[in-house]
Each structure stands twice: as structure tokens, then as C-alpha cells.
Amino acid sequence: MVTPTYNEADNLPILVADLGEALRQVPHEVIVADDDSPDRTWEVGEQLATTTANLSVVRRFHDHGLSAAVLDGMSVARGSILAVIDADLQHDPGILPEMVRLIESDEADLVVGSRATAGGGYGDWAASRRFVSWVATFIARVILRVRVSDPMSGFFAVRRDVYERDAPRINPRGFKILLEFIGRDRNLRVVEVPYEFRNRIHGETKLNRSVIRSYLLAVAELRLGRQVDPAFLLYVLVGVVGLAVNSLVFSIGEAVGVPQFTTGLNEALDPIYGSFVLSVAVSTVVVFVLNNEFTFWEQRYSGWKLLPAFAVFVGMTVVGTLVHVGVFSYLQNIGLLLSVLGDAGARTLHNLVGAVVALIVNWYLNTTYLWRRRVR
Ligand code: GDD
Ligand code: MN
């Protein structure tokens, strides 16, 4: 049993007792993989180890993270079945003997303790957390075509030879250690055992924005391999969201009748549609915020620095728009593929090429001057 811990000092003694109880008939060891918790969970573990047989603590000082901790725990485990359980008492250790049996009888290579399969449940988990979990599960099922109903589970068991075969390929980033196994190894026989999820009593969740972000990166990587920079995919995703926000605001603006206005500056300019201005403004802010808080989370700006950063961002967006228009007019002028696609078809293509070139120029400008990225 590997249990990853970060500030679980109050939960650990209960977990260890519960595991001992549930696994009375099953020979086992417990490995606490702790990231040098400020609440000294590691010390609680070491204390427990003086009175509990086969309990050990791996106190990790480097490369903190849930998946990395689990992998470290697994690497020192001695059993023929390696199991993982979160330390926060949200999972039911009572199903462990059944999980072990399924692997020993060779009915499964990997067994997932599942909240989402018949007989399981999420307890009275907050609606917001259920939603996050639902979206993450949906993404895994649609994008990675994973068939497991609860691929986000922090509760699973895997046969040792499967672990030894797959571990070298696993990316130890983020929370999604189970997904790394089932996402990379398509031939695994996976069985789910239902259980009822419980609420956290002590301590708090470590799931935050950076976890969600690294989850999306991990999914992109599992799907596409390492050829494409996953941050670029997030960037494109944010762009798509921006487009959607733009058309939504525009439609709403038209529906409620945001007025047109005239500047009197230039005839070609006037009249200006209020809903157009509004939709560009709102979507620019949304795209900036999402990129700052999400795509470039590690390099994000905060406090007063947000203002100059936003100004630079707007400047780059203007450059991008100029590039877009420039490429479009150039292609229109040379009439690229005009004879093949016809007037409307060619215009659509020219616009699309312009948008893609602008996107790449923007990506280059943003990552070079605004959210400068460290070399990995
Ligand atoms: N060593 C280590 N390092 N342990 C960690 C870290 C870390 O950086 N972050 C979290 N943990 C431990 C926690 O102490 C806990 O035992 C377990 O990992 C799960 O962390 P939680 O913070 O309780 O996660 P959660 O309950 O919000 O998330 C649950 O739902 C997710 C999505 O449905 C877990 O079951 C996740 O595994 C699951 O993906
Ligand atoms: Mn939890």
C-alpha cells in the first residue's frame, strides 16, 4: 500500500489503523510517501512505524507532487501487487481484499476503486468538485478513449509486472497517476470495484488551478506524444474560448440593442457597432486572464503588474490583427487558389491562413516578450 501525503498528520494514524483492519487477512506493507509536509506528517508516520509492523516513510525533499510521490513509494514497495490509496480517508479500504483477489485470480491487471460504477457513489461531495471531476473524466473518456468510469480515482491496485513495464514511460507530473497507467497501456485488463466516497474530515484538498492545468497538459501529452508543445495547445484552447466569448457577447449585445455610434473622425470607420467594440473588449480581457492564470501559470503576473502586462498583451493582439489583415489582403491580391476554390472559398481559405499565421506570430510574441518561459 502506497499512500501519498501532504499535510495529513491528523488522518494518517486513522488510515493506518483502517488499513490494518481491512487487510487483517492479507499480508501487506504500508509506505507513506510524504513531501516533507510542513505539518510533519512524516514524523507522525515515523512514530507509527515504531509500533506498526511493515510501515515505512519515504520523506521526499525534491520533485514534490502527488504522482511523483506515488511512483517513489512504488519503487521501494516489495509486494507482488502495488496499491495506492489517498491518505485523507475519503476511500473505503474495505474493498481492498476484493481488489487484491481480482488481481491474484488473474481476472485483472489493474483494479480501480470506483465512485462512478454501479454500487459506488460520490457521497455528499460538493457540487463544484463533482463538476470538476466530471469534466476531467469526460475529457479522459472522449479524448483518451479511456473506458474506466472513474479514471481520476486516487485508489487503485496494479500487478507488479505491469508497474515494472509501464513505470519508465510514466510522466510523474500532476495528480493523474492512474490515468498514466490506463492511458499509456491500452491492453490492460481493468476492473472496477465500487465504493462510496467519503468527505474529508481533517485537512484540506490540494487540488488547485495548477493541478487542473497540469491535468490538461498530461491529457494532451498522452494523446499526442511529445511532438507538440502542450502549452501551445492550451494557448489555442484559450483562443477558441475567446472566439466563443466574442460571438456570445456580440449576439447578446445585438439582442439587447447596444447602440451604434459615430466618431466623426473618418468616414470609413463610422458608424461603429457598440456590440462589436464590447465583444472585442470582453474577449480580449477573457483571453488575457485565461492565459495569465492558466496557460502561462508559472510566469503569471499579479497585482499592479497586471496593468502593464495587459497593455503589452493588447499591443501584441493589435500586431496579430495587422498580420491577419496583411496576410489576408496579400493572398487576396495574388488570388491564391482562386480558380480552384471560387471567390467565397478562396476568401475563406485566405482568412483562415491569415488567422493561423497571426496565431503563431502572437504565440511567438507572447512567449518571447510577455510570458517568457524558462528553458526546460
Ligand atoms: N506526497 C504528496 N505530494 N502527496 C500529495 C500531494 C503532493 O504534492 N498533493 C496531494 N497529496 C496527497 C494528499 O495528502 C492526499 O492524501 C492525496 O494525495 C489526495 O490529495 P487531495 O488533495 O485530497 O485530492 P482530492 O481529494 O481533492 O482529489 C481527489 O479527487 C481527484 C479528482 O477526482 C483524489 O482522489 C485525486 O486522486 C483525484 O484525482
Ligand atoms: Mn482527497
Describe the structure.
The chain is α/β, with parallel strands linked by helices and 376 residues long. The protein has two domains: 2-224, Spore Coat Polysaccharide Biosynthesis Protein SpsA, Chain A (Alpha-Beta Complex), CATH 3.90.550; 230-370, no CATH class. Helices cover 53% and strands 10% of the residues. It is built from twelve helices and nine strands. The protein has helices at 12-22, 41-49, 66-76, 96-104, 127-143, 160-166, 177-184, 209-224, 230-256, 274-295, 306-334, 338-370, and strands spanning 2-5, 30-34, 55-59, 81-85, 110-114, 155-159, 190-194, 260-261, 272-273. It has a four-stranded mixed beta sheet. A three-stranded parallel beta sheet has the order 1-2-3, with helices on both faces. The model has no long low-confidence stretch (mean pLDDT 89). Manganese (II) ion is lined by residues 86, 88, 90, 200, 205. Manganese (II) ion binds at residues 86, 88, 90, 200, 205.
